[in-house]
Amino acid sequence: MSMYSDIVEGVSENIEIMGYPFYAENISSEEAYNRREYNRNSILGGTESVTKGKYIPRSYTFTTTIYHPADRPDAYEKIFKEMVSNPQEIISAYMGGKFKAEIIIQKNVEESSPNHMVLDFSVTEIPEQTSNIPGEKFTVPSPKKVTVKTTTTNKKSSSSTKKSTSKDSSKKANSVAKKNKSKTK
Asked: Residue 174: what are its φ and ψ, rounded to 5°?
């Protein structure tokens, strides 16, 4: 079962997601290349201090029209649900090669064309441990082991306080009882 029944011979897919080939009708980029944001701060004298900021991932959108069997518009639902549920591997020369990305799919179903639907894909790169920016090298520090120091309290002093207060309260109770006996006689 093929999603594309109208592909002209000799035309090949231009995007592969999760091993499935897609024939994009148009690919547009919001961010075509990995880069860093630049932070600009005005300084005295009318100039600016410019420093590198956060990592900007690649981001693309593309549209494709797929065909499904008659009366089965849900034929590929399982595949699409899996694509959007986890980061997927994208392979496309038009998007800069192979990378992991978050996928968002929007469906457009036209009533006049019952056996096909138009899908709008949004592909946003998920950066890995190494930078994809040419000439940039950085290392991600390994997590530090955190140890929690516990302090113990002196249990003898707190329990002796409890004992003395209970002895004191029983002494007071005995003296009150003796006073009440002497009053009754």
From this structure: -65, -40
Percent of the chain with pLDDT over 70: 74
C-alpha to C-alpha distance for 99 and 123, rounded to whole angstroms: 10
Q: Which amino acid is at 145?
A: K
**What whole-number distance in Å separates Cα of residue 111 and Cα of residue 109?**
6
Strands (E), the chain: 15-17, 20-22, 26-31, 35-43, 47-56, 59-67, 88-92, 97-108, 116-125
Q: pLDDT tens digits, residue range 93-151?
A: 999 889 999 999 999 888 777 788 899 999 999 988 777 777 777 666 778 888 888 88
3-state secondary structure of 10: coil
d(CA 50, CA 35): 15
* Separation of alpha carbons 163 and 158, rounded Å: 9
β-pair partners for 17:
20, 90
